[in-house]
Specification:
nine-stranded mixed β-sheet; 504 residues; elongated; alpha/beta
């Protein structure tokens, strides 16, 4: 069958094509690698590149422009730098480094740029956020006044943490710093708080153990883990806490509550020092670059409790810093102490003597204080810190003399039992009403005539007893959050009754 074309038809199609034809020029700014290795690359070209802009290397590897010099660019490589060679072309992306954020990340383990590393498949996210966000200003914030319960008696009573606070956890290695934050995450199970755990420079086995614990206790349902392990290059360890913070900010800005844990910022500072020295930035004290203070302050300042007009959401920061041989006056620890709203200091001697959590009451402080406590806890915990501080002094004093007066002896007796009730096993966070009841019982002398080794037995039996015989006490403490005179009478009655049965 022969197809006939009319000349007019052909000419009209050609005219239409010519009229709609547009010249589109696709411009790309391309540079060239002049040096690469150890997680950094030097690039010539790209005169219009922005600070912190993402750059695309061959083999789908990305980097971030960090040093903008006159004749070259110093970039960190976020991936396998061994695949990048001299002479490779580098493209601008026009985007400042950002990470995926939003609810699909909850329950997942991701790397420093938000890619999944838990083997559970890709994450479908629609929203990205810059890793370097701007901290809310004074007008956008409101005071920290809502408690973030950790479930640990010694912290919730004496060093309370509030939503929107920045509380440092500091101590030598193997003193239980990570254990404290894991217990705190487990305690958020029935609350509206989401958790982001950022692991920086830790062994992969350590991170896997933390994830395994969180899964075992059902805490991964509201937790995101950002992992930049010791086997990851220094640039990934440098970027990780900012990525974790961006994920938390998305939750905060949607009017919800999040807590982000940086474990730990000492390793983060070391990774940044490595990157800076390779980029030939001038070293300062302990070979850290001059902007090391800004590195952590611009990260931690992003934690805030937003005002009600902005949704009232909060982002709480719990940075961890490892000290060397208890030297908390070293460069990085003092930097982070000066930025945060208090610190929880863990001491090796306490840890090895069986006081766990090994919190040193004298050196720990919360600058938010009673504002981050419910009324009932504030009323029972007021004297606790003072009594424990006096007890520690008397213990040191009692070593020198054998003759002690009755008052001193009584103080030592009370102090021993208070230390005993503040001990807590790992993975057993405690509801706030139980904490209030046992601290009240201890402070009012009901444990003074018990042998120290039986205090724990008393405590474990007291909670079921009071729940069965006096259910109103824990219920009112939980709901009304106030220790009324009526509740005090009932607590006194319960303590006396249980103690009579306990001693017989």
């Amino acid at each position: 069958m022969e197809i006939k074309f009319e000349p007019e038809e052909i000419s009209s199609i050609l005219k239409k094509q010519i009229e709609t034809y547009q010249i589109a020029v696709d411009m790309e700014e391309v540079g060239e690698v002049i040096e690469a290795g150890d997680g950094i690359a030097r690039i010539k070209g790209l005169p219009n590149v922005m600070a912190a802009e993402m750059l695309e290397f061959p083999n789908n590897i990305f980097g971030m422009a960090l040093n903008l010099e006159e004749d070259n660019i110093g970039a960190i490589i976020l991936g396998d730098f061994a695949e990048i060679e001299q002479g490779d072309s580098v493209k601008r992306t026009g985007r400042v480094l950002s990470v995926p954020v939003g609810d699909p990340l909850i329950g997942r383990v991701v790397n420093a740029v938000g890619q999944p590393v838990d083997g559970k498949g890709p994450i479908s996210v629609q929203k990205y956020r810059l890793i370097e966000g701007k901290a809310p200003n004074v007008v956008q914030r409101q005071p920290v006044k809502e408690p973030l319960q950790t479930g640990l008696k010694c912290i919730d009573s004496m060093i309370p943490i509030g939503r929107g606070q920045r509380e440092l956890i500091i101590g030598d290695r193997q003193t239980g710093k990570t254990a404290i934050v894991v217990d705190m995450i487990l305690n958020q199970r029935d609350t509206d708080v989401f958790c982001i755990y950022v692991a920086i420079g830790q062994k992969q086995s350590t991170v896997a153990a933390v994830v395994d614990t969180l899964e075992k206790y059902g805490a991964m349902e509201y937790t995101t883990v950002v992992a930049a392990t010791a086997s990851d290059p220094a640039p990934m360890q440098y970027v990780a806490p900012y990525a974790g913070c961006a994920i938390g900010e998305e939750i905060r800005d949607s009017g919800r509550h999040a807590v982000v844990i940086y474990d730990d910022l000492w390793k983060h500072a070391v990774a940044y020092r490595q990157v800076s020295l390779l980029l030939r930035r001038p070293p300062g004290r302990e070979a850290f670059p001059g902007d090391i203070f800004n590195l952590h302050s611009r990260l931690l300042e992003r934690a805030a409790k937003l005002n009600d007009e902005l949704g009232g959401g909060s982002l709480t920061a719990l940075p961890i810093v490892e000290t060397q041989a208890g030297d908390y006056s070293a460069y990085i620890p003092t930097n982070v102490i000066s930025i945060t709203d208090g610190q929880i200091y863990l001491e090796s001697d306490l840890f090895y003597s069986g006081v766990r959590p090994a919190v040193h009451v004298g050196l720990s402080v919360s600058r938010v204080g009673g504002n981050a406590q419910i009324k009932a806890m504030k009323s029972v915990a007021g004297m606790l810190r003072l009594e424990l501080a006096q007890y520690r002094e008397l213990v040191a004093f009692a070593k020198f003399g054998s003759e002690l007066d009755k008052a001193t002896q009584a103080q030592l007796t009370r102090g021993e039992r208070l230390v005993e009730i503040l001990k807590q096993p790992q993975y057993e966070p405690m509801p706030v009403e139980n904490q209030i009841m046992i601290i009240y019982v201890g402070e009012n002398g009901y444990l003074d005539d018990l042998p120290v080794h039986r205090v724990k037995d008393f405590e474990s039996g007291f909670y079921p007893f009071i729940k069965e015989k006096y259910p109103q006490v824990p219920r009112d403490l939980r709901e009304k959050k106030e220790l009324t005179e009526e509740l005090k009478k009932m607590l006194d009655q319960a303590a006396e009754e249980f103690k009579r049965n306990f001693l017989t």
